[in-house]
Amino acid sequence: MTILTIDFEASCLPRHGRSFPIEVGIAGDGVSRNWLIRPHESWAGWDWTAEAQALHGLSHDRIVREGQPAGTVLAELAAAAAGRRVIADSLLDQYWLDTLAQAAGMPSPFRIDHVATLFDEQAADAARIAAAVAYADAQGAVRHRAAGDALWLAAVVSHLGAARPASLLLAAQ
């Protein structure tokens, strides 16, 4: 099965309050795509922190202005992930996928596996993981933006040789 990596950026980390997804990115086969997510009305009053904004560089005004509705993002994300194993490097990504799906009035279209599961399946020791991380770091992905983080993780997975990377024919947006 091909692997698709995923990453979400959010309004804040859950330890700082009620957070909602503001961007999602996917990557495979050296190609990435991202969506800005317009805040859903059910998220009104949820938290937004300056710390998170400083990290990802996305303002609330920008996601309101440029973001797409939750249902649109979820449908396009589900289509891109169809038939692929989806991997993330944070357990929080499943929470944000579930939050997005709930706002869209749909069930989550897939489950997200944590990359540690893949490391275990590949019997990757600390040295092999460190080499994969160093390889990914050398690729120059822009970190703390969803597509860049997904590309970084795809490079880690690819270096491990864990699976054939997902072939994505993604239109530039």
Describe this structure in words.
The chain has 173 residues and is an alpha/beta fold. The chain has one domain: Ribonuclease H-like superfamily/Ribonuclease H (Nucleotidyltransferase, domain 5), CATH 3.30.420. It contains 7 helices and 5 strands, in the order E-E-E-H-H-H-E-H-E-H-H-H. It has helices at 50-56, 60-66, 70-81, 92-104, 115-121, 126-138, 146-160; strands at 3-10, 21-28, 31-36, 85-88, 112-114. The protein has a 5-stranded mixed sheet. Helix 3 (70-81) packs across helix 4 (92-104) and helix 6 (126-138) packs across helix 7 (146-160). The two termini are 27 Å apart. Mean pLDDT is 89; it is low at 162-173.
Q: What tags apply to this protein structure?
A:
5 strands; 173 residues; 43% helix; 7 helices; RNaseH_sf; Nucleotidyltransferase, domain 5; RNaseH-like_sf; Exonuclease domain-containing protein; five-stranded mixed β-sheet; single chain; alpha/beta
What's the short version?
This protein has 7 helices and 5 strands. It is of the alpha/beta class.
**In what range is the share of β-strand residues?**
15-25%
Task: Assign the structural class, choosing from mainly alpha, mainly beta, alpha/beta, alpha+beta, or little secondary structure.
Answer: alpha/beta
Give the CATH H-level superfamily: Ribonuclease H-like superfamily/Ribonuclease H
Number of helices: 7
Q: Output the radius of gyration.
A: 16 Å
Tell me, briefly, the overall form.
globular
Spatial strand order of the main sheet? 3-2-1-4-5
- The level of helicity is 40-55%
User: Which class in CATH terms?
Assistant: Alpha Beta
pLDDT < 50 stretches? 162-173
Distance between the termini: 27 Å
What is the CATH architecture annotation?
Answer: 2-Layer Sandwich
Number of domains: 1
Arithmetic mean of pLDDT: 89
Query: What's the story with the biggest beta sheet?
Result: 5 strands, mixed
**CATH level-3 fold name:** Nucleotidyltransferase, domain 5
Order of helices and strands: EEEHHHEHEHHH
Number of strands: 5
